[in-house]
Each structure stands twice: as structure tokens, then as C-alpha cells.
């Protein structure tokens, strides 16, 4: 009996990857697809499909168990903020173990090695570091939970895509918007490793992970296997945007230096808090709270009691010159810190293991993938 | 009618909470007699938050003998049986759009209302928005010159605060974006430009689901002769969110962002200019709201002093049009989706 004849449960089905998984399951002839829907308003894309939308929340173990029913295959693309990544993954795994699921495909990420993976992380054999980034570290911890369920007998497979792009992807939607606004800056000429994966190639890997018994208990990087840089990825979107202003350039060192000069978390927060407190709008709102009116009066009274010089010093302390907003310094757009981290890696992940064990062969090359993205962006009024 | 009209609201979902209930509570000629919902807790909570003194029940049949009229705001597929029961009990009905999910049901409702001499009005609140009334006057006045067609595009990520989620069930909603949102637009377009004599329809339902995107080419024949138009709707992405009506002298634009105005674009002394047309109306708070005006029209209909702006028969013609669309649907091409199966390419 083909796995496509069995009940299949998809989490994260209202998202970019989970949505495409559902579509591809329908195209492949799956007979019983159940999509977990947390926020029904987000279900427009998958509501078009002949599948069952099941309400529930990954944060609630009982609701996941109920929604999963007698599913035999689970494709877990669901996500939650911060440590919710752990509880949602554990809830899905526990429900799958209870349901006697025959294959659990866990959508992890190559970012378990951080936003800027260190050399040596090219293959799945590399140990996971502590990256200091909440998302990356929690996705790493989630993998450990998956392993623990595998040791207890649940047939799990972990896939680690990196930059997944395709129709409906936020990467391309955001990029063409920023290109139109002239807000795209190449860091170090865009030489950073992008590790693109066209979404359909990733879904191929999901299907293979379900089909191949030798996949069980294993972890696989899944990319297109092409050495696409961020410069390649960004420049591929440029011709789509009519009259796009030229790309800006900056060095990694300059961006890093810019952020080094910014106030640290604590002092920056105090400064920003001070500015907010002094804004007329906030003070106006705060005065509605009776106690705040008293406090403000007291602070004002205290300030008035200080010598003039001291008052000036206090004012000056909180009235530091406006820091330059990273996203708009005149005509120049300073990349955000997360962009600096994401776009300056040197590691291209190897998909040799996926090819060897899964028989994975990325069939949509970058040029074709970008063409499909452009067709969708035009349809969806993004261009 | 000396006494206030006793109304029950059936269905305590998002539209009742934000629109129908405030309208009923604000209307001086109306008395809220009951809130009905299968989820009694929801109905009670709604009554509490609005300080509404009325009966709360899950059984709509039990209130029909106690009221003059109902507002029918239950999920779409239940509209018809509720209307039939209400009319048979001698109760007037203001029904949320769409009137029903099939034209057969709509016709049965209309015929029963006529037979019982009761009002069957349909909630097309847009008819009462100032911008809609201004555009109607613009067309009647001939301000645009001879009509060349229209372009109507409304779309955005779906964000309606649905309580029951029935919108995503074909069986319960009757369809997707066309029957949910398109029904409003078709209602006004047919009202302005006349019956549709020809149409071409595409959507992105994969079969067995409900469409998120719909594209309709419409050909009307009415008071303004032959008018061609394009209607595009989306629940997945932003569209311009406006209706353009193109004329030989100027174009009108009805923006979704401001339903009080119509913009008129024209050439003036060799330059493009835009005029903003707005009715000088006092701000009456919620009484300026289209749902309040819709309720008022319904109340006057029941009192016999004016006909409903949208009655069942007009709604029936729109439902027939929607059925015609679904019956003649073609799939919107999705070359990004319709890729050949992976394994066959890999193995070949």
C-alpha cells in the first residue's frame, strides 16, 4: 500500500512550506490529507484544496492528538515563537507516538548551526553549537527532542533546509518591495553563501523521507546543491522590478562597525525609554492612569528642585543625538544585524547524504525556480 | 406602527457583534427581543458586553412566536431553512448576504415571502454607503460621458474575524471569495449596469475546495447600453482595492479605503486632475453606519413606508449569476503549481 493511500497529517499547513506540501500531496494523489489550522484566517491558500482542515493548536497537546486522528504519516512544518518551538515539536511527537505514526518528518533548519554557520558545518556529521540565537538554538534543541522520540521507537526523519524560496515565499516578496524602494544593500558584493532551496525540491525531499526506510533516524541538509550566493539571489530579482534603483554596496566590516558603535542593549533601552517617556503622546496616555499622573508630577517637581546645571546634564543624558535608523540613512540603507549575519556566511551545505540515502535530486534549478517565482509575483500583484 | 419592532438576532458571530447588534440597540423603533446562538455562552457574553436586556436561547424556533422580525446571521447554508421557518411563523426577515447558497432555495424563500406578504430584505450594507450613493448619482447624471467599462479589484490577506470558521467549508459557505465578497460587488454592478448577458469566469479552486482568487469578465446590457467590466478578487494577496468606472469624459474611482467618497479623474486645461466628491452629511456616530441605515430601511419596509433597497428577488438574480460563474468555471492557470510529478522526472 502506497503511503499516499494512508492518512497524512500536516502541521504548519497555512505557512509557505506546509502549504506547498499540501498542494503537492493533492497533486501526487494523496487521498486523506489533514491540515492542522491554528488561525483559520490564514487558511485561504489551502482551503482551495480537496483536503480536510482540522482546527487545533500545536501548543495544546490534546488538540494536536485529536486533530491527528489515525494519521500514519506526519509532516511537521509547524512553528511557534521562541521556546514554543520546543513544546510544539514535543506535542506533535507525543501525539504521533500515541497514534502509532509510521513516519514523522520534522522540518528543521540548517540554521541550527547559527545564522552564520561556522566552517566545518558543511555535513550533517558536525556537532550542533550553541549559537546564542533563540531561533537557532531552539531549533537545535527541537532536533534533540526528535532524536529522543526516535530512540523510543518513533520512525522520524529530520530535514534541514536553508533559504527556501518559491511562490508565496516572504524572501522574494520582501526583496522585490525593497528593490523597488531602493533599500537593498549588497554586503561584501553579495559573496555570502545563500544555500537556496526551491520549495518543490524540498517537498521532493519530504516525499523521499517518507518513502525510504533508510531515512529513519537520519538528518539531511536539503538545498538545491548549487553554489548560489546572496548576490546571485538578489540580482536574480532585480530585472523583475521596473526601474529599480541601483543596488547599494557596503562591506561586512562597515556594517559590523556601525552596530558596534550603537548603544548596548541596556543603555540603548534606557535612552530609548527616556525618549519615549518624554514624548507628548505617551505622557498624554499615561496621565489617564491616576497613579502615573502623581508620579509625573513628583518627577517634574524633583527636576525643578535640581540646580540648573544638573537639570541640563540630565536632559542631555537622555537627549543624545538621534541614532541613525538602520533602514534609512538618507539614501543609504544599512542592512539589519540579522541580514549581516545571514548574508555573510561562507558555508555551502552538502546534499551528498540526501542524494546517497534518499536518492534526492533537486530537479528545479535556480534559473527555473526564479522564473516560476516571477510568474507568481506578477499574478499576486507584487510586481 | 406605534410599538417598537421586536427583533431577534439569530447567529452571534463576528458580524452580529460588530454591526447588527449595535445597529439594533441604537435604533429607536426597534426592541431587541432575543439573541440566538447554538453557543449560548457566546450569546450571553455578547449580551453582557453590550448591556443588552433580552432573551438568550439556542432554539430559534422558540422565539419566532415572540417577535415581529429576525436578523438572520447564521452560517450561509442555514439561511434558507431559517428564513422558511420564520416566514411560516409570520416573521419578517433581514438576511445577511448571501441570501442562500443556491438559487432554488432563494426562489423558494422569495415566493414564500410574497405569498405571506412579509418583507424579505437582504443585507447588502454597501448599498447604504455614501460612496455607493454618489457613484449611482454620477452614473445617472452622465458625468463620466459614455461608459467604456469598469475595472473592479478587491483583495488582501483574509482577515475577517470569523467566529465559527464556516467560511472555509464549501458545504457551509457555498463557495469562497466570489460568494462571500463578490456577492456585494455583483449586487451593485447589476444594479447600476443591468443584467449580465455574458460572462467568463476563472478561479483557483483545485476541486472540492473553495476559491481564494476569482476573475470574472462581465458583459451587462442595461440603461447605459452594453457595458463590459472586469472583476478580480483575492483572499491571498493585495489588489488595488477600488472600482474604476471608465467614461469618455472622465473616470470615477471608488476606493475601499474610504467608502464615503468617489474620486473623479479627468483632464482639465491639459492636466490630469482629481476631484473628490463627498456628501455633506452630519456625523451621527453609529447612525451614519451603513448597517444602521440598512436596518432603518428594513424597519420602514416592515412598517410599509418604503420598499427594501435589496429584496429577495434582486438577491436571487445575483445568486443565479454566481451559480452561472461556478458552473462555467475555468481554473486560473498556475504554472508555478502545476509542475510534473517529481519522481517521474527523477527516474526518467
Structural summary, described in words:
The complex is a heterodimer of chains A (383) and B (348). Chain A is α/β, with parallel strands linked by helices and 383 residues long. Chain A has helices spanning 16-28, 61-68, 84-99, 134-151, 170-180, 199-211, 230-237, 252-261, 265-278, 280-286, 290-305, 308-318, 337-342, 352-358, 366-379, and strands at residues 8-11, 33-37, 52-55, 73-76, 103-107, 156-161, 163-165, 185-187, 196-198, 219-222, 248-250. Chain A has two domains: 3-245 and 340-379, NAD(P)-binding Rossmann-like Domain (Rossmann fold); 267-317, no CATH class. In chain A, the strands form three sheets. In chain A, strands 3-2-1-4-5-6-10 form a seven-stranded parallel beta sheet, sandwiched between helices. In chain A, 42% of the residues are buried. Chain B has 348 residues and is of the alpha/beta class. Chain B has a domain at 129-284: Dihydrodipicolinate Reductase, domain 2 (2-Layer Sandwich). Chain B is built from ten helices and 15 strands. Chain B has helices at 14-26, 40-49, 79-88, 103-116, 130-141, 170-173, 177-193, 290-303, 312-327, 342-347; strands at 5-10, 30-36, 55-57, 69-72, 92-96, 120-123, 147-155, 196-203, 213-222, 225-234, 242-247, 250-255, 261-268, 271-278, 329-331. Chain B has a nine-stranded mixed beta sheet with strand order 14-13-12-11-7-10-9-8-15. Chain B has a six-stranded parallel beta sheet with strand order 3-2-1-4-5-6, with helices on both faces. In chain B, strand 12 and strand 13 form a beta hairpin. Chain B is globular and about 65 Å long. The N and C termini of chain B lie far apart (79 Å). Classes of the chains: A alpha/beta (383), B alpha/beta (348). The interface between A and B is large, with 38 and 39 residues.
